[in-house]
Amino acid sequence: MDLVSALPDEVLLLVLARLRCIRTAAQTSLLSRRWRALWTGPTDLTFRGLVPATIQALFHRFATASPQVSTLDIGLPWSRHGTAGAGSLLRAAVRLSPRHLILNVKELYPGHMGNIELPCFERATSIDIDVGHTWLQPLPDGEFTALESLSITGQIISIGPLLIRCPRLRVLSLTYSDRYIIHIPHGEFPALEKLSLSALRVNTGSLLNNCQRLRVLSVTHLHTCPLRIMLPPSGQFPMLEKLNLSGNITDLGILLNRCPRLHVIGVTFCGMGLHSLIQALATLQKVVPLGLVLSTLGIEIPWRDGISSARFASLLRTMERLSPQELVVTDNFEGSHSSGRAQEIKANLPCFANTTSIEMSPRNVSFKSLKPSEFSRLERLSLSSLCSTVEIGTLVTRCPRLRVLKVAVSTGKMTVHSASLQKLDVNWNVGECHGIDIVTPMLKKLHVNARAGGDISVSISAQVVQDVSWQCWYTRSALVFGSWCVQSLRVQTMENVMCLHLNADRTTSIDIKAHHIWLQQPLPAGEFTALESLSVTGQINDLGPLLIRCRRLRELSLTYRDKYALLIPHEHGEFPALEKLSLSGKMVNHDSLISSSKSLRELSVTQLDTCPLRIMLPPSREFQMLEKLTLSGNIADLGILLNGCPRLHVLSVTLRGMRIHSLKAALATLQKAVSLGLVLSTLGVEIQWRDDISAARFASLLRTMERLSPQELVVNANLEGRYTSEHFHEIKANLPCFTHATSIEMSLQNVCFKSLKPGDFSILERLSISRLCSSVDIGTLVTRFTHLRVLKVTVSTGKMMIHSALLQKLDVEWNSGMKCHGIDIVTPMLKQLHVEVHAEWDIGVSISAPMVDNVSWQCSYAGSALVFGSWYLHSFRVQTMKNVMCLHLNANVQYNIFTLF
Q1: Cα–Cα–Cα angle for 461, 463, 468, nearest 5°?
Q2: Are 494 and 501 contacting, i.e. CB atoms less than 8 angstroms apart?
Q3: What are phi and psi for residue 458, nearest 5 degrees?
Q4: Are 211 and 192 in contact (CB under 8 A)?
Q5: pLDDT digits over 759-784, tens only?
Q6: For the residues of 390-408, what is the DSSP string, one character each?
Q7: How far apart are CA 126 and CA 444, in angstroms?
Q8: Model-level pTM?
Q9: Is the dihedral of CA 668, 673, 675, 678 positive or negative?
Q10: Residue 478 CA to its chain's centroid (Å)
Q11: Is the pLDDT of residue 322 over 70?
Q12: Which of 256, 150, 159 is nearest to 204 (CA)?
């Protein structure tokens, strides 16, 4: 440190300037007294990551310590407070009088955008400003007398007056983002030599008329409307040497004939039809043999014109004859159906003898073979998207000077041997990788993205590689290490360290979802010594041997679908650690599994068929640890099971597929258990109407459910054994009071609730009475539910009134055959509203729901209810879509139906 501190101030200031950051330079003041004030001395100032207020506070110190600032480089971070700080910062920077000004404002929050004011910098010779999507407004005072180079990215207000105040301007670059247009009014710019314009639409106006010294011109026209370059009054650009055009270029031949000194041209044809594109390429073919250098040729393929394989091959031959230094071929699907419907084009990749860079990314083109010649000058090649080649190794050998290769591979094996390749990017687009062989002594960057069905052979020789990103996904259980099964592998360099990332199945949990597929070989051989949780959805063979290999298993979930039975064979195995078991399927056979699970605390069994569901007790005749039990199906011997669970505290049952006498017996058993303190969390009852249940029998069932008073009640109908619901006689009943229920769901097709029993539904939060269930007065129903948050109901009354202080979700549907006469809703907390009504004429509707944000309202009219001229309103729908309220009208006119949006 002493040797460094002994260096002259000029050398130390040069060191600080090379740091490119004032914050880092200021930290050197802590080294010693020698360095304390040096950080304020450099003439090149770079500010990164500091807010405008902090930078302005530092300006005063630099103004006194550095009388002349050479470069002022400011990079402002993103700010949700908008652009106010950037404008004041520029005004403060005027006092420093920098010769070179650079300002980069990160993307600002769109809702806080404002204008950034640009003051006059009289001493500045170059200004480079990037304000993203923000407007830049030059202040009207002063002249930029020394300014020679101006670059602005963003939007600028009054560009013409600003340019007139720059008499020495030689280089001008304007890049407008978004939808804005570059428009340059009248003015003379005699010193301008280099001009670059890029915007959605470019209107050069009189700018080019007065640029007699213009040597370099670049115009990028992002819109699809024609791009024409206006000639100066002399009829030609006498000094123009280099021209770059991008867009829907027209009159290219006329322009080229008026540029006598033109030597280099770069063109990108965008948004052009096939006919115009062929004409433009023919024009280039005429001028290139005369000595014009084609630096860049970019082509958007207009697939909307139905380009065939022969036409595409013709375009490729034209590009080959032009042989530009850089070739870019992309897709343009505008006007066509979709890229997925375009026919696949098979072609041969031509030889571009003079081309140094090729980039092709057409999604429906496949290169199947190569012409027998060399790409002698090619240094960069990119064939991405669905572009592919048969043999990537052969392609590489044809490119002796290739340095960068990016390719999408569809073949099983890949071989890349290259003495010059420095960067390689390979992506398996379709199919699986079977092998990789890379020999590249000069390779510095390697990126491989592959998919494999098993272990693959990989051989890589790249002695100087520094940047590696290797990712491989395995579609099957390819790599197995004991109970580990590798799913993906990633090798990556991070800060000069090689890191290996493995995504494998083992840990303590396995979740397999095969759905309707049989899992023949579920997991590899060996013991699952650490497995604690296993979940399988689908069908699995040899389940017993698998479970025996999981000695530490605590949680097991098996869900079988379709017609298959969940069969657990009688194996000699113990499951001492199993605490939580969930089984779901048809014909559930679980005897040996449950009876050998001595530590079981939670048991859930769902039997999907109508066969009796019996739970076999363990040899001790008790589930000594069982605390929570969930059963669903045709449950048999429920009393015996409950007596064998001394610690059982919470019970959930769904009685399905049971005849009326078995159902009554099961409910009676539940009554005894509930009276002894058992908590009934869920009670589900499926009514078997084939047993000709009368109104008295149904009322008896309701009274039993009322006495049980579960936390959640679900009652629905089972029509099996009956023809249709129309063959049932209607049952009228009173809706009981379930004092402990928080959720009630009833869906009964032939039941009509006419009145409510006296009582208080004090904790009910969710109520659903749908299908043909109905109530005389829904308003009275709601007032009895003081904590109701969700209501779904089928209404059979003419008028509906709902006043609720807590209701958050409301779903109302009028019964078929019933017409709505009026709706009155007052729900200050309502967030979701769904209404389907039938009416004969216009109805009175009053809704007060200030917080609602999700609405679906549909009303259909019977007859000519609402008439507008010759239109008869048939139905209308009001719906919220992406926070926008939309109205859909369906009206009849002259016996035709139209939909208006």
Answers
A1: 80
A2: no
A3: -125, 125
A4: yes
A5: 777 788 998 887 655 555 777 778 87
A6: S-HHHHHHT-TT--EEEEE
A7: 36
A8: 0.54
A9: negative
A10: 30
A11: yes
A12: 159
